[in-house]
Write a structure and sequence with these properties.
Radius of gyration: 15 Å
Order of helices and strands: EHHEEEHEHEE
Mean pLDDT: 96
CATH topology: Aminopeptidase
Number of helices: 4
Number of domains: 1
Number of strands: 7
CATH superfamily: Gcn5-related N-acetyltransferase (GNAT)
Structural class: alpha+beta
CATH class: Alpha Beta
CATH architecture: 3-Layer(aba) Sandwich
Shape: globular
Helix content: 25-40%
Largest sheet: 7 strands, mixed
Distance between the termini: 27 Å
Length: 150
């Protein structure tokens, strides 16, 4: 089941923080970045709670298996998207993407990810996203911007 997460509530904001802390080290390794240098791992539970974005989670019973952070504008922006490592390779990423397209129809969607994050790029390409830009971050990480247009 996918539902909105009330991230302003401390318990739910902490759940988001915990899944970020479990998931982002995997992406960091794909990108060749140490945990201490990977910007998403520096985000605090307080920063998540204070965010003006919207969070949606995939629940497996009472367990939060995935989180997607969205800016619900035109274009819709996927700010962050993680699947708990214990739920990798179960199709949850595709279910979350199906949900976004069904729940928030837009003319354009945008997402950024690390250039070497081949699993994420593959998922977005499966849904029709195309790379439109590549740029470096100060940490030596290369990012790609991907978009989908109606």
């Amino acid at each position: 089941m996918i539902r909105k997460i009330e991230h302003h509530q401390s318990e739910q904001g902490d759940q988001i923080y915990q899944i970020f802390q479990r998931s982002y080290p995997y992406e960091g390794r794909l990108l060749g970045v140490e945990d201490k240098d990977f910007p998403p791992l520096k985000r605090t539970a307080q920063a998540i709670a204070e965010s003006t974005t919207s969070f949606y989670g995939y629940l497996d019973g009472d367990s939060l298996a995935a989180v997607m952070e969205l800016t619900l504008s035109e274009p819709l922006k996927i700010n962050s998207f993680v699947v708990d490592p214990g739920y990798f390779k179960q199709g949850i990423g595709s279910k979350m993407m199906d949900f976004v397209f069904a729940a928030f129809p837009r003319q354009q969607y945008i997402v950024e990810t690390g250039r070497e994050n081949i699993p994420a790029i593959g998922l977005y390409r499966k849904f029709g996203f195309e790379i439109i830009e590549k740029y470096p971050l100060p940490q030596g990480i290369w990012k790609v911007v991907m978009e989908w247009n109606a």
